[in-house]
Amino acid sequence: MAKFKIKIDTKKFEKQLNKQIEKIAFENKKKLIIEEQLQKGGNIMNTLPNKEEQLLEIILNKYDGNEDMHVSGSFNVIPRNMQFGLKDIFNTLKIYNYIGEYDIWLDGWFVALNQEGIKYFEKKGMRQELFEELADSEKELLKQIIEIEKSDGDISEFLANKVNEDEKDIIRGEIGVLKSNGLINVSWASNTVYNAVLTQPGRTYFEREEKYFKRMKESTNNTYNFGNIYADGSNVVVGDVINSSINIDNSLTRIENRIDQECDQEDKQKIKELLEETKEIIDNIKKSRTIGQRKSFFKKLTDHACKYGWLYAEIVNLIGTAAIGIIGGK
């Protein structure tokens, strides 16, 4: 009887197995991040973990502005504690859509940036959460930096002197927070600040903060007191509505302005069409005194809400105001 020998290339098999394991791990991580984004409703920016953010900053520092958004570099620009798990860090950047493709070889790496990656720190500095996250001391330091810029002073020299003061560790931490949140750009050399500049999000921080808390106050004040409610047959009688001077037309104008200011160019037309449909729904509510089903409208609204969470709240508030008008006999 003939003997058959089966030769198994164990190295090749192991390599293929590792690729499959990496693929499964990548897909599982992607699924978790997508679920996290959905839970947040799309209105809160997903900030990166520390190592991923550090790597993205390294990539952006080496980006020369080329149209292809390609960046390459050697391993010596990446901290040693990040080099062994570099593929996982790159994968996370890819899952978040901050980079496209990437490649790693023996002594270097290549990345194709995405527009979202280029704008990451700018958008991070524009987050509303910052208004409540920054400590008073960090805000005070930012105020001083803004004043120095207004008076044509040297921000780099100011921060370098701060670092050399007694509480230098605290100052370093505060500078680090402002930098990591995209409010200032800082370069270090010889263990001190070498170059520092204020970013646009940092420059406009307090102006935006004032508007944010003003909106929060207005939202809190727009409460309704229906007094006594009682049923008489099929009719419901409601007391007076406090703050009923809320003007839907003014709200629509404000939303239109916000769309122009905050929405990406490619989204503006579709969102404005959605707002026009909202006006139509409100007009129908006033005329028919009923609210009909609009599944396609709701789908479009929730689709846009994944990217602009505030839009969902604004439109629901508009329709709710119109509905309350019916309840109050308006």
Q: Which sheet architecture does the biggest sheet show?
A: 3 strands, antiparallel
Helical run tally: 16
From the alpha-carbon coordinates, what is the Rg to the nearest angstrom?
A: 27 Å
End-to-end C-alpha gap: 98 Å
- Choose one word for the global shape: flat
Structural class: mainly alpha
Strand content: 5-15%
Give the oligomeric state of the chains in this entry, treating copies of one chain as homo and distinct chains as hetero.
single chain
> What is the mean predicted local confidence, pLDDT?
78
Low-confidence stretches: 222-246
Strand order of the largest sheet: 1-3-2
Helix content: 55-70%
- Total strands: the figure is 7
Order of helices and strands: HHEHHEEHHHHHHEEHHEEHHHH
